[in-house]
Amino acid sequence: MKLDELIAIISEKIGTTINQSMLAESLGITRQTISNRIKNASEVTVSELKRVESFFKINLSSKSEDVVYIDYYSDVFASCGRGSIVFSSEKTKLPIATSMISGYSKNKLYSMINASGNSMAPTIDNGDKLIVEHWTGNQIQDNKIYVFCYNNEFFVKRLSKNLDEIIIKSDNPEYRIRTISGKSVYDLILIGKIVATIKQLD
Questions:
Q1: What domains are there in the chain, each with its CATH number?
Q2: Which residues, given as ranges, of the chain have pLDDT below 50?
């Protein structure tokens, strides 16, 4: 679920239109952060939904809500920084509400991994769990967040494609934009798109 969709749902639930400032207040963040996240099509996290429910005194979930069991690779860490190597592929099954997965389809394959590093903060923080929609050969969607392998390391970054090059961007402004061009483009192995972020509880 995206933030603009959440605003519409809250407005319908409480019977009055809310704005970005009201949503920002419920989440304890600035209106500018809300605006930026809407611009980037940022997904709402599980912990954020709970804060919204508490603030507006509403229930955004349903007892009959569909649940899907996703493979969780607890020892797989995709870097939101300088890169990390996967050491293990042991997995367990975790139940996830399908409403939390952007564009969910029973025909798509999903898995869950861990985020490591701070280059995608504040969108993704160190220790967050990331739900990945596995790549099926479709085109890169500009400015979406992907997990990919490059030089035997796994990364989570925003990707854009420009002619014969791939642009790699971080949400944390301390990290510079990188590009991969020419034959090196074929060395980038796309694993999938991030379709949900589960924030680590404080």
A1: 3-56 (1.10.260), 67-198 (2.10.109.10)
A2: 63-64, 85, 87
